Amino acid sequence: MNEISISVIVPIYKIEAYLPKCIESILDQSFTDYELILVDNGSPDKCPEICDEYAKKDDRIKVIHKEHGQLLSGRKEGLRNAKGKYVAYIDGDDWVDKFYLDILYKLAEVNNSDLVATAHFREFDGKIETVRPLLTGVFNEEEIKNSILPKAMYNGVFCKHELATYVWSKLFKRELLNKILFDVPGEIVMGEDAAITYPYLSISKKLTISKIPLYYYRQRNDSILKSIKNTTVEFYRLGLLKTFLEEKLSPFLTKENLNTQILYYLYSSILVRSGGLIHDKSEQVIFNPFLKTKQNSKIVVYSSGSFGQHLLSANSRSNYFDIVKWVDIDHHVMNIGDHYVEPLSSIVNIEFDYLIIATINPTAFNSIKEELQLLGIDCEKIVQINTDETEITKLLTQLGFENTLLN
């Protein structure tokens, strides 16, 4: 029996409204030499039935029903059952372009690559934007080790990665992925993509990064956790991620470089998950990352994405800021507590001390800042995020990451 070219693995849990579109987009591929492995991760809705119905119609589909576990467990189970030369992961609430597998396969074969990464589309509230990688091209083993890996998580600009973490929009060689995926601790549920992508990169001999967008990532309001519910558990999980990345990457990177990369990666993860305002057990704010702002400052929050939602939720715990408006150019109905998202025009004639652009992406920040200035917003009121390495180190130590820096 000839080897299948690509195993497409789709972990599935509570996404019945989106799953058919995902499966249909895969079955409609121009490339046909693949198997589709649908991993029902103990989903309590109609997902198991949807999977089984599709499997009856197409013999390329294999359905695995398992007890509920984290996303990582579904990815592992899919890989255990995969027979392809390559593996592509697709999240069950996303969908892909008709030529997704075709182009991924050609990029891998033509360039003899162990890893292929592409651009993607981001869909949020019906609007689609293109997200392209910072770096494109074909890179050999020496370039990976000396240029890509030392900047993979942090390239010197806060929250800028030489290679995005996502396992979707990538193509892996199954024989190499087997060496990485099963070593990732099942308890890692924050940053699990980083725990796969970067160690895999470290053992890759050829990397191809393309600017062609082929994957549609759906950012759902109902999938965004509005606040950290248990900081002890969350930070413990991040600690597991830190330890795993140190173990896997220390043979390839200097101690100083690895320290800095992990430091900034952990910090960005904590910011997004916490909304920036870090509370202690008594709900007192022990860290405020928004430069110039102080307790009781009158604040406008721009962005209804995940960071913006987390910030509103975090602030509701202590009322640290006096939030006077919550706005977004992608105006849609959403509220957290007494705050509703309003159109951008609503801030033109109100008084406020500072405006927080709730994003850790510097490109997005600068673009939004330019638009706000066109509306007459004083740029001195638009605040930056604190990225001082000394301050970040103090914060992580305070949060229990005593060994944040390698000895």
Describe the overall structure.
Strands 1, 2, 3, 4, 5, 6, 7, 8, 9 and 10 form a 10-stranded mixed sheet that branches. α7 runs parallel beside α8 (231-249). Mean pLDDT is 91; it is low at 223-227. The protein has helices at residues 19-27, 47-57, 71-80, 100-110, 141-148, 174-180, 192-202, 231-249, 255-274, 306-318, 362-374, 389-398; strands spanning 4-12, 34-40, 61-65, 84-89, 95-96, 115-124, 127-131, 137-140, 170-173, 206-218, 278-279, 285-287, 298-302, 322-327, 335-336, 339-342, 354-357, 382-383. It has 2 domains: 4-223, Spore Coat Polysaccharide Biosynthesis Protein SpsA, Chain A; 224-407, NAD(P)-binding Rossmann-like Domain (Rossmann fold), CATH 3.40.50. β15 (335-336) and β16 form a beta hairpin. The termini are far apart. By secondary structure, it is of the alpha/beta class. The chain is built from 12 helices and 18 strands. It is globular. Keywords: Glycosyltransferase, Transferase. This is Glycosyltransferase (GT2).
* N-to-C series of helices and strands: EHEHEHEEHEEEHEHHEHHEEEHEEEEHEH
Strand content: 15-25%
Residue-averaged pLDDT: 91
Largest sheet report = 10 strands, mixed
Tell me, briefly, the overall form: globular
Rg (C-alpha, Å):
22 Å
| CATH T-level topology of the largest domain | Spore Coat Polysaccharide Biosynthesis Protein SpsA, Chain A
Q: Tell me the domain tally.
A: 2
How helix-rich are the residues, as a percent range? Answer: 25-40%
> What is the level 1 CATH name of the largest domain?
Alpha Beta
